[in-house]
Amino acid sequence: MAATFAWTQRYGAPAGTESSLGISGNLFNFKRADDATAANYSSNPITAGTRSYEVWLRAKFTGTFNKVDNIQFWKSTDFSPATGLFVRWKPAGTSVYATPVTGLSKAVSAVPTSDPGAANVSIGTGGTGGNLAASGYCNYIVLQLATSSTAAAGDTSLAVFTMNYDEQ
Fold first, then answer.
1. In 3D, which of 63, 88, 96, 108 has the Cα closest to residue 161?
2. What pairs with residue 55 in β-bridges?
3. What whole-number distance in Å separates Cα of residue 100 and Cα of residue 94?
4. What rounded mean pLDDT belongs to the chain?
5. Using an 8 Å Cβ cutoff, are 10 and 60 in contact?
6. Which among 35, 63, 90, 123 has most CB atoms closer than 10 A?
7. How far is C-alpha 113 from the geometric centre of its chain's CA atoms?
8. Are 76 and 148 in contact (CB under 8 A)?
9. What is the distance, to the nearest Å, from the Cα of residue 32 to the centroid of all Cα atoms in its chain?
């Protein structure tokens, strides 16, 4: 047997609501709404010079496996054009959920733009790394889109985020 993987998003306050996003496709949009509805971004736009709500994602692993570890996350395709658009994240993630914000956030670092080659998302509270030996989650991957005054008006193209992990 093998591990089964799916993305989840937590939103709302204070304990939040978890929504399963599946494994591929247009899973979420950065927007000025704190929910897990991908399609309502046009009624919740991020205007130039503002930030989106934080997006709290994590991978859920189920099934039968010996170990899942070495989780690596990066932005494999940037927006085009990307002028004035900055995706930030919290490296290693966090194991504790907090209500998403639109202001300065936990997401303060640039998301890597290539495979980091080593774990950069944690499982549990022990810093980068850790492993799962049974069904469970990685730490939250907290993302936020920040824009400058040079951001173009209208929709952006899609950005693609990639996550790899090792399974034994």
1. 88
2. 143
3. 13
4. 92
5. no
6. 123
7. 14
8. no
9. 16
Of 156, 158, 114, 140, nearest to 26 by C-alpha is 158
Cα 128 to Cα 40: distance, rounded to the nearest angstrom: 34
The pLDDT, as a whole number, for residue 1 is 67
Question: How is the chain classified by DSSP, letter by letter?
Answer: --EEEEEEEEESSSS-EEEEEESSSS-----SS-SS-GGGGGGS---TT-BPPPEEEEEEEEES-S-EEEEEEEEEE--SS-TTEEEEE-TB-BSS-----SSS-S--EEPPSS--SS--B-SSSSSS--EESSSEEPPBEEEEEEE-TTPPSS-----EEEEEEEE-
What the block records as the tokens of 104 is 């300065």
Instruction: Give the position of tokens 């309502």.
Output: 40
Strand partners, 164: 72
Owner of token pair 């890597």: 112
Question: Containing H/E element for 105?
Answer: none
Phi, psi of 27 (to 5 degrees): -80, -35
Kindly list the domain boundaries of the chain, sorted by start residue.
3-167
Q: In the Cβ-directed half-sphere of 126, how many Cα atoms lie within 13 Å? A: 7
